[in-house]
Automatic annotation (TrEMBL):
Protein name, entry field: NADPH-dependent oxidoreductase
Gene3D superfamilies: 3.40.50.360
Source species of the chain: Fundicoccus ignavus
Molecular function GO terms recorded: FMN binding; oxidoreductase activity
Domain named NADPH-dependent FMN reductase-like: residues: 1-124
Domain of life: Bacteria
GO cellular component: cytosol
Matching PANTHER family: CHROMATE REDUCTASE, NAD(P)H-DEPENDENT FMN REDUCTASE LOT6
Length: 173
């Protein structure tokens, strides 16, 4: 199956690519599945309803069997870029599973929980395990991602839950 690792931030100087690449590296040990980084910034999505939609975004969301959202906390919520990207597709998301990986000064869990609520409206089931990285301990100078080795077990739990649910969801799509 094919999974998208969706980078939630588009900010200049963002750290999300480092987090996405780490998740992709751990996921590459899952035999038989593909994990592709999907960068919202590549799609130049207009704010919904303010310009020409980008059909390439909808096609990408449609072709994926499941998602891993890389979620960063901005003002106790998800980034506007991620909310807009979620709103910019509809039935392309339906009946799939997702894992959420978050980061922030408190692990980004407030933003992660928001994403979970929004996903429910899009018929996307968020798996239980949410690896949550701390800006103070899993990053150097808040900018270089250096996750502790102990975090890998949680990432693998999330991946196994995601793959199991994605197999099940494929049967009903
Ligand atoms: C506008 C803004 C608001 C932020 N608010 C929070 C916050 O409420 N809680 C938190 O833990 N971190 C907050 N941060 C810190 C971000 O989580 C941190 O900068 C992180 O690196 C952002 O992800 P990115 O680098 O991939 O964009 C905020 C950062 C920005 C730019």
């Amino acid at each position: 199956m094919k999974f998208g690792i969706i980078l939630g931030s588009t900010r200049e100087g963002r750290v999300s690519p480092q987090v996405g690449e780490y998740i992709q590296k751990v996921a590459s040990k899952q035999a038989g599945h593909e994990f592709e980084i999907v960068d919202i910034a590549d799609y130049n999505l207009p704010f919904l309803g303010t310009g020409e939609a980008n059909p390439a975004w909808n096609a990408k969301i449609n072709e994926l069997d499941g998602y891993i959202f890389i979620v960063q906390e901005y003002n106790h919520g998800m980034s506007a870029a991620l909310k807009n990207a979620l709103d910019s597709a509809r039935d392309e998301w339906f009946n799939k599973a997702a894992g959420i990986v978050s980061y922030g000064s408190g692990g980004g869990i407030r933003a992660a929980e928001q994403v979970r609520l929004v996903l429910a409206e899009q018929y996307v089931a968020g798996v239980r395990t949410n690896p949550a990285f701390n800006l103070f301990t899993d990053f150097e100078n808040f900018s270089t991602f250096k996750p502790g080795d102990h975090m890998e077990a949680g990432v693998n739990d999330m991946l196994n839950e995601l793959i199991n649910w994605s197999v099940a969801f494929k049967a009903i799509r």
